[in-house]
Design goal:
Family: Belongs to the KRTCAP2 family.
Main location: membrane
Oligomer: single chain
Distance between the termini: 58 Å
Shape: flat
Helix content: over 70%
Structural class: mainly alpha
Strand content: under 5%
Protein name: Dolichyl-diphosphooligosaccharide--protein glycosyltransferase subunit KCP2
Transmembrane segments: 6-25, 37-54, 66-85, 92-110
Radius of gyration: 19 Å
GO cellular component, one term: membrane
Length: 129
């Protein structure tokens, strides 16, 4: 049995730690090009952990059948982009691109792990008269 509450708490703690590190190092990250890229990467990691926390909270409260939908993904992405905007404008762009990439990767992993079946095609043959 998966412990969704513990996973949600750990993901939330990691978000707080990364967010605190970004805010402490904000001036150093904004000063250089590699720093702005690193800030965007860290904010996209925040997106993954926030989405994990939200999804696990849903699964703990509703049940194992709950899945994160488009609304949750967009809200988590906006939250990560707001954090990136506190550092630099370029960090927002890097964060957006990596969030889209990570959302695609997470979706692919979920489809292979949980095996969402594809609809079977039905072939209708014409009858001869």
């Amino acid at each position: 049995m998966t412990n969704h509450v513990a996973s949600s708490i750990i993901s939330s703690l990691l978000v707080v730690l990364i967010l605190g590190g970004i805010q402490i190092m904000k001036a150093e990250l904004a000063a250089t090009r590699p720093g702005t890229l690193i800030a965007g990467i860290l904010c996209s990691v925040i997106f993954v952990f926030v989405l994990t926390a939200v999804s696990n909270m849903q699964m703990a409260s509703v049940g194992d059948g709950a899945r994160a939908g488009l609304l949750e993904v967009v809200v988590c992405m906006l939250l990560a982009m707001i954090v990136a905007a506190t550092v630099h404008r370029v960090s927002v762009t890097v964060c957006l691109l990596l969030c889209i990439f990570f959302a695609f990767i997470l979706s692919t992993i979920a489809h292979t792990r949980y095996g969402v079946p594809l609809m079977q095609q039905t072939i209708v043959a014409k009858k001869k008269k």
